[in-house]
Amino acid sequence: KPIIYFASPVKNKSGVAVGVVVARYNSIAIEELMHLLIEDDRHIVLIDREKNIIFSSDWYYKDKVLKEKMADLPSVREVISGKTGIIEEFYTPHQDDVVSVYVHERPFGDFTGNNWSLILSVDKGKAFAPIETLKKALLILYGFITFFCMIIGFVSFRSLSTIFDESEYRFKWLINSSPDCGIFSNELPIVNI
């Protein structure tokens, strides 16, 4: 694996060089660290502005680091244009639907950046698994609530039905027990003046 060395002058606010920062990028050490942090179903690819692969945790690009360019995916086109976001796409290296999160490097303070971009891709099924689990749990809860409401409705209907039956019985008793009951009788009362 190649090792990339970086060197940059350190300048004070007036632009006078006061030192040099030297660093090296050991792809093996970074790869080992990334594999500790990343599960097998997640793929991280670091690319530059020309889509050259600088780092990849994906087995498909493992031997293509610093040799080939990243596939022309929607997430790659978006991140190369300087955008940051999330996209659902077909990941051609694995012939799989994935959810990709892409971030373009931003300048910070005096650091202008290298114009690098990071893309993290996760299998769509695994990315949405918690949502599917929640959806199933909510459907089960909805079923229990519906069943509970039906039981309450049935009990309430039975109670109201009993009350109406008793009211009808009392109403009929009132009509039958007093034939001179005014509006409850078959005839209107005759009033002589």
Q: Which H/E pattern describes the elements?
A: EEHEEHEEEHH
The portion of residues assigned to helices is 25-40%
How far is the first residue's CA from the last residue's CA?
A: 122 Å
Shape by Cα distribution: elongated
Low-confidence stretches: none
How would you sum up the major sheet? 5 strands, antiparallel
How much of the sequence lies in strands comes to: 25-35%
- The helix count comes to 4
Whole-angstrom Rg:
38 Å
Count of DSSP strands: 7
Indicate the mean pLDDT: 78
**Strand order in the largest sheet:** 4-3-7-6-5
Structural class: alpha+beta
List the helices and strands and how they pair.
Elements: E1 3-11, E2 17-26, H1 27-37, E3 42-47, E4 53-56, H2 74-80, E5 85-91, E6 96-104, E7 117-123, H3 124-127, H4 129-177
Antiparallel strand pairs: 1-2, 3-4, 3-7, 5-6, 6-7
Q: What does the model show?
A:
The protein is α+β, with helices and mostly antiparallel strands. The model has no long low-confidence stretch (mean pLDDT 78). It has four helices and seven strands, in the order ββαββαβββαα. It has a five-stranded antiparallel β-sheet with strand order 4-3-7-6-5. The chain has a two-stranded antiparallel sheet with strand order 1-2.
